[in-house]
């Protein structure tokens, strides 16, 4: 169970993600090394729902500066999860 919680890091709460909930689609920030099968198993285990499909996007790293110091913001992975009709994630519906 702890393995599943380390795969799903947090939900993405944006205007676009909120509008996608009407189509039973939810957006999560996930572990960069996780694959679609692991993401599906984690969502089904944590939220007790049935997942129809998972799409992933690797968000690239970006350069960042603070005065003379240059660095970068680490890249991350985003997952679009589509649930079976009739299922929903109650915790995210109230946000």
Keywords:
95 residues, 4-stranded antiparallel beta sheet, two-stranded antiparallel ribbon
Overview of the structural elements:
It is a single chain. The chain is an alpha+beta fold. The protein has one domain: Alpha-Beta Plaits, CATH 3.30.70.330. It contains four helices and six strands, in the order αβαβαββββα. The strands form two sheets. Strands 1-2-6-3 form a four-stranded antiparallel sheet. Strands 4-5 form a two-stranded antiparallel ribbon. A hairpin with a 2-residue loop joins strand 4 and strand 5 (69-73). The longest helix is centred in the middle third of the chain and has 12 residues, at 36-47. The radius of gyration is 15 Å and the shape is globular. The model has no long low-confidence stretch (mean pLDDT 93).
Tell me what portion of residues adopts beta-strand conformation.
35-45%
- CATH class (first level) name: Alpha Beta
> Total number of β-strand segments?
6
Which spans have pLDDT < 50 for at least 5 consecutive residues?
A: none
This entry's quaternary arrangement is: single chain
- Overall, the morphology is globular
The secondary structure category is alpha+beta
Assign the CATH architecture. 2-Layer Sandwich
Mean pLDDT: 93
In short:
The protein is α+β, with helices and mostly antiparallel strands. The protein has helices at 2-7, 15-20, 36-47, 90-93; strands spanning 8-11, 25-30, 51-59, 62-66, 69-73, 76-83.
How would you summarize the topology of this molecule?
Blueprint: H1 2-7, E1 8-11, H2 15-20, E2 25-30, H3 36-47, E3 51-59, E4 62-66, E5 69-73, E6 76-83, H4 90-93
Antiparallel strand pairs: 1-2, 2-6, 3-6, 4-5
């Amino acid at each position: 169970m702890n393995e599943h919680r380390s795969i799903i890091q947090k939900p993405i709460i944006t205007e676009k993600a909120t509008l996608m909930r009407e189509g039973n689609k939810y957006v999560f920030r996930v572990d960069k090394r996780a694959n679609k099968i692991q993401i599906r198993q984690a969502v089904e285990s944590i939220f007790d729902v049935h997942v129809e499909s998972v799409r992933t996007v690797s968000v690239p790293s970006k350069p960042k500066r603070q005065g003379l110091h240059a660095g970068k913001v680490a890249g991350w992975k985003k997952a679009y999860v589509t649930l079976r009709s009739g299922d929903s994630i109650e915790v995210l519906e109230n946000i």
